[in-house]
Amino acid sequence: xxxxxxxxxxxxxxxxxxxxxxxxxxxxxxxxxxxxxxxxxxxxxxxxxxxxxxxxxxxxxxxxxxxxxxxxxxxxxxxxxxxxxxxxxxxxxxxxxxxxxxxxxxxxxxxxxxxxxxxxxxxxxxxxxxxxxxxxxxxxxxxxxxxxxxxxxxxxxxxxxxxxxxxxxxxxxxxxxxxxxxxxxxxxxxxxxxxxxxxxxxxxxxxxxxxxxxxxxxxxxxxxxxxxxxxxxxxxxxxxxxxxxxxxxxxxxxxxxxxxxxxxxxx
Length: 267
Fold this sequence. Notes:
The structure is a single chain. The chain is α+β, with helices and mostly antiparallel strands. The protein folds into two domains: about 5-100, Alpha-Beta Plaits (2-Layer Sandwich), CATH 3.30.70; about 110-255, Alpha-Beta Plaits (2-Layer Sandwich), CATH 3.30.70.660. About 25% of the residues lie in helices and about 25% in strands. The chain has helices spanning about 30-40, 75-85, 140-150, 200-210, 220-225, 250-255, and strands spanning about 5-10, 50, 60-70, 90-100, 110-120, 130-135, 155, 170-180, 185-190, 240-245. Strands 1, 2, 3, 4, 5, 6, 7, 8, 9 and 10 form a ten-stranded mixed sheet that branches. A hairpin with an 8-residue loop joins strand 2 (about 50) and strand 3. Helix 3 (about 140-150) packs across helix 4.
């Protein structure tokens, strides 16, 4: 039977999950997806994702792929069937048949994450699940972006990953870090070829620490070059972080960000 490669683009509220990766006796994104896909496939099915998110981290553009020999089901059939079986905090946004060579992780060029912060003395009850709260101190988005600019390019990010990160290489390429404000919402947008474990949350924690202590941007350079996790800031809260998008089409990336393709570094 002909094998098909299916790409799913999905969103999820990560609040009540212990992360993406499967864990025995824990509720995970991978566990819920695998259960639903395997039930439809009528055989145990493995999936591959573009990036593994931590416990409490959300997604609006996560991508996974898997293989099936169910040739009687079209893209819309899979879309409808999966959304009917998955819990409400995981939603399939798009289902596409892809070439057999497509791989959700290895075919990716860049990933984009947003970190959202409510910079106000109080936070709405409706924002609690999806925003971090930074009260009683007015953040300057231009200064935060200056700190972030030090990290752009290819570097050893050992100072910005957790001790449990098992990556053989700690080198990653950050294309851009943009910081925007809309009323009392600060959004830190980071695009890179790949990320180390907790890398974005540690970068955010470090940017906020340097800002609050009124440190010059050269301090970020010292932290980066030190490769010492103890010099960086805290691992900031997971709930403010959202996996926004995976880039596969180089022409789209050039159109929006005017950036050349970089060699993918294994996660």
